[in-house]
Amino acid sequence: MVLQLYYDLYSQPSRSIYILLKLSNIPFKKCVIDLATREHLTREFAETKSKIQRVPFIHDGDFKLNESIAIVRYLSREYALDDKWYPKDSAKQAKADEFLEWNHLNIRLECATYFLVKFHIPFFTGKFSSKERIKKLLRNLERCLKDFERIFLSNGPFILGDQISYVDIHAATEIEQTRTACYDARDHFPKIRIWLDNVRSECNPAYDEAHVIINELTSIEVKPKL
Fold first, then answer.
1. Looking at the domain assignment, is residue 118 inside a domain?
2. pLDDT exceeds 60 at position 173
3. Same domain? 128 vs 197
4. N or C: which terminus of the chain has fewer CB atoms within 10 Å of its end residue's CB?
């Protein structure tokens, strides 16, 4: 039975796993979950598809697995996933894991929070946060991106050095999402701009395919309802 990927490209982790599967040529069935209609929050969904009720997740026969990073590690063990995506060498894998652990409370936290507060919540509820809160979140975001440049983009064109890996996809899809909230890191951080261009070039056409919805949402100006 072919691997099944349950995802919504509105979700950053979904985009990262989708791109990886497309690039690795692992056959998979596309199972789109519409987060906007909240189908993932039903009791039936929890009982038949995923108890965690988040995307992405996979079904590999009778085996079910959530969480994008866990999925990558599973694919590296069970499928012919190219070593460059998630290294098998212990030291190189540890460096990949170092970034993925750092990412949780840095890029993931700050990019997702800014996206949620500045775009997602106003877009779906019409509720806006104060200018003061937005400014604080922006300061946190830019401090994080500055640290990212300094710590992880100083030893080559990619996070782990000269070769692209899954950690680049994971980070890039997160940073791209803030464009929907009218913040493009390319305009403020030269190293990130070059790095994003490199990641996109290495991952196309899957990269652009996964970001169609993000590109569409950047043209939407969210305003308070009168």
1. yes
2. yes
3. yes
4. C
